[in-house]
Design brief:
With 755 residues, this protein is an alpha+beta fold. 30% of the residues lie in helices and 25% in strands. The protein is built from 20 helices and 31 strands. Strands 1-9-10-11-12-19-16-15-14 form a 9-stranded antiparallel beta sheet. Strands 8-7-13-18-17 form a 5-stranded antiparallel beta sheet, with no helix packed on it. A 5-stranded antiparallel beta sheet has the order 20-26-27-28-31. A hairpin with a 4-residue loop joins strand 23 (540-541) and strand 24. Helix 9 (426-441) packs across helix 11. Residues 321-674 form the Glycoside hydrolase family 65 central catalytic domain.
Length: 755
């Protein structure tokens, strides 16, 4: 069931309704960030109703103890989680002696807008107090020009006579995670100051038992006020500082508070207070209008490079732009130490850590839309954690490297066994990301300098994890969870076996004598890898002529998803876990994930048979699922299904498809809407080392266009009903393949008739 809170607009999320019932969903959808920090769409003046106050700083996390009564050898020592940081947007507002609270007050003409083109969150409304009306306008942004800077502009205008106002901007460090055990606090106060010119608050994460880094966060607040100030006071407690203004406002006179906050952390500097003051002083002569203009121009520049333009369907247009905006709000590659958390800065679910989503879904988009350094940094993030990945493998008694399912540092920090040490297919995706980067960029140097080290250790893991079946004389992998997390502890998951075998092949193809010597790869190892490649077992059904998801999948009661009722869905909220595990229903692409990864390994009929068998069993309750199905449906000519899956991935959060967006947005899967259009509708492929397109145009669209970076070129692609037009925006002549035919793209536009 879809749940739409905002109007359809190509560039904005707009609503005239203060939705108290779905306030958390509204907060998630209006989250903002700048890669360095971010927050949910909370109100500055506070809200006494149900809300999730959430502010998050990139790279700041806490190792929460995970040892429980059923703890087993091999379990992670802790569960890593992103932690809710100090609330620095707060402004207490008192009007004629009464505190402003939109949960209890009478509110008229409410307007809430997220302007994606300019990166601004705005609110306006009229509130009634003592039979008088007051106009409130609030604007907020997190600067992408000065990453440590947050700016809030808050305006109050009495409409029915003079008024006495109190505006009290504050910093509050007494915050908790919603998922904290027993209301545990993860912060302790370090320093606080309430001054006439500015105030600051410094907090530090509490000690932990795991020798992991403790983080310190410093917030420096400066306020500028217009209006007749009757009195000013300051106050502080260990976790709180405020500046309180008492103001006399005449009728129709607007009182404006501009609040600037600088956030510094121990991740970047030892002298947090000095660094914050230095930044604040550097902006002293920069007006609010200049700050806003610089921020807006920076966002517009990003969209100029990355925008996907859809003509004829504003709903589809809003979806792709919302997803690009939220991805770039989370990560734009400026800090090589960071990665992309599934919830970004929008919530605490999934711990805020790095998953395989980055390599599988986000990397292809960043390859095409950012400079080459950004995807290279994403790969180096994993290379830099190779030693930790080796520790993960040793912890469960295996050779090589096991990259974590969930991590901040490279050490596995997820506390569910079936995910942590069964969902090992993610190891293959780390290898696949190196292949994807190479075939897209042509950068062989990365492989020689860094990639081969990762490939060898992953191959060593696979070689130790398999076992040889005496009965069939085949290598097998038992006790795994495939991408379909609605099945645990299965044997011979086809995708896992396939990606493991492919990794061994790819490693051997790129292992030269120099690397073999440096990495101490013995001849016996190579011989075993070759034997595994030759004798790996792949479950296959002759009747259906499909790859079997795992050994016993076809023994289940097979029924299509159209037999489910509305009361059943989503399964993960309405069925017991036991019932889900026994069912045939698939959470996300599993066999189809492998076919998506390697489109040149399988013929059309194989793709079609497997898609037609597995898609009707798939409930798409993973946010990662619709994109893969959109791409494959496009490839086999199921265009209606492709468009349906695009709409689901593009508007997954905007329409709350899985009824869980109130917990935060599905950030990494947002790349899926871009994949659905570029790899799906436009048929872009680079896995063969050449640039290919095979576009189609959805019936309800008039046209669509996008830009990509490819090697040393920048290309614009326009797909219309009768033709496909390619324009070389930058770079030299290059070969492209359209519908299988080779063309040379030069300074003249390339126009090809659509099929």
């Amino acid at each position: 069931m879809r749940q739409r809170l905002f109007e359809i607009d190509p560039w904005k999320l707009k609503t005239k309704e203060l939705n108290k019932k779905h306030k958390r969903l509204q907060e998630s959808l209006t989250s903002i960030g700048n890669g360095y920090m971010g927050m949910r769409g909370n109100f500055e003046e506070g809200y006494s109703g149900d809300t999730h106050q959430g502010t998050y700083i990139a790279g700041v996390w806490f190792p929460d103890k995970t040892r429980v009564g059923w703890w087993k050898n091999g379990y992670p020592d802790y569960f890593g989680k992103v932690i809710n940081a100090l609330n620095f947007i707060g402004i207490e507002v008192i009007i004629d002696g009464e505190k402003l609270d939109l949960y209890t007050d009478v509110v008229l003409d409410f307007d809430l807008t997220l302007d994606m083109k300019n990166g601004l969150l705005t609110r306006s409304f009229i509130v009634q107090k003592n039979e008088k009306r007051y106009q409130i306008e609030a604007t907020r942004f997190l600067s992408i020009k000065t990453r440590e800077l947050a700016v809030m502009k808050y305006c109050v205008t009495p409409l029915d006579g003079d008024a006495e106002l109190v505006l009290a901007p504050f910093l509050d460090g007494e915050v908790q995670n919603e998922d904290a055990n027993y209301e545990e606090m993860f912060w302790e106060p370090v320093n606080v100051h309430a001054g006439e010119a500015n105030g600051f608050l410094t907090t530090r994460t509490i000690p932990n038992d795991f020798q992991t880094e403790r983080f310190t966060v410093h917030a420096l607040m400066e306020n500028h006020l217009t209006g007749v100030i009757l009195n000013e006071t300051v106050s502080q407690t260990p976790f709180y500082t405020e500046k309180r203004y008492q103001i006399k406002a005449e009728q129709n006179e607007t009182v404006t508070l501009e609040k600037r906050v600088i956030i510094t952390t121990s991740r970047d500097t030892e002298n947090l207070e000095e660094k914050a003051m230095e930044i604040l002083k550097s902006l002293a002569h920069v007006s609010y209008e200049e700050l806003v203009t610089a921020h807006k121009e920076a966002w517009q520049e990003r969209f100029m490079k990355a925008d996907v333009v859809i003509t004829g369907d504003d709903s589809a247009q809003q979806g792709i732009r919302f997803n690009i905006f939220q991805l770039f709000s989370t990560y734009y590659g400026e800090d090589a130490r960071l990665n992309i958390g599934p919830k970004g800065f929008t919530g605490e679910k999934y711990g805020g850590a790095t998953y395989w989503d980055t390599e599988a879904f986000a990397l292809p988009m960043y390859l095409a839309l950012t400079n080459e350094e950004v995807p290279r940094n994403l790969l180096k993030y994993r290379f830099n954690q190779l030693e930790e990945a080796k520790q993960n493998a040793r912890k469960i008694g295996l050779d090589g490297a096991l990259y974590p399912m969930v991590t901040f540092t490279g050490i596995e920090c997820h506390n569910e066994w079936e995910i942590t040490f069964e969902e090992i297919h993610r190891n293959g995706t780390i290898a696949y990301a190196i292949y994807n980067y190479m075939t897209y960029t042509g950068d062989q140097n990365y492989l020689n300098e860094y990639g081969i080290d990762v490939l060898v250790e992953i191959s060593r893991f696979w070689a130790d994890r398999v076992h040889l079946s005496d009965r069939l004389s085949k290598y097998m992998i038992h006790g795994v969870t495939g991408p379909n997390e609605y099945e645990n502890n299965v044997n011979n998951n086809w995708f896992t076996n396939y990606i493991a075998t492919w990794t061994l092949k790819f490693t051997l193809e790129n292992l030269d004598q120099k690397a073999q010597t440096r990495l101490h790869v013995r001849d016996e190892e190579i011989q075993k890898w070759q034997d595994i490649i030759k004798r790996m077992y792949f479950p296959y059904d002759e009747k259906w002529q499909i790859f079997i998801q795992h050994d016993t999948f076809l023994d289940k009661e097979l029924r299509a998803t159209d037999t489910l009722t509305e009361a059943d869905l989503p399964l993960n909220q309405n069925w017991s876990w036991d019932k889900i595990l026994r069912s045939c229903f698939i959470k996300q692409a599993d066999v189809l994930q492998g076919i998506y990864y390697f489109p040149n390994h399988f013929d059309f009929d194989t793709k079609q048979r497997n898609f037609e068998f597995y898609e009707p069993l798939t409930v798409h309750e993973s946010s990662l699922s619709p994109a893969i199905h959109a791409v494959l449906a496009s490839e086999i000519g199921k265009y209606d299904k492709a468009v349906e899956m695009y709409e689901r991935t593009a508007r997954l959060d905007l329409d709350n498809y899985n009824q869980d967006t109130e917990d935060g947005l599905h950030i990494t899967s947002m790349a899926g809407s871009w994949l659905a259009i570029v790899q799906g509708f436009a048929g872009m492929r680079t896995t063969s080392g050449k640039l290919e397109f095979a576009p189609f145009l959805p019936e309800s669209w008039q046209n669509y266009s996008f830009k990509i970076n490819y090697r040393n070129a920048r290309i614009e692609v326009l797909v219309e009903k009768e033709q496909v037009r390619l324009k070389l925006l930058k770079g030299t002549e290059l070969a492209v393949f359209i519908y299988g035919e080779k063309y040379l793209l030069s300074k003249e536009d390339l126009i090809v008739t659509s099929k």
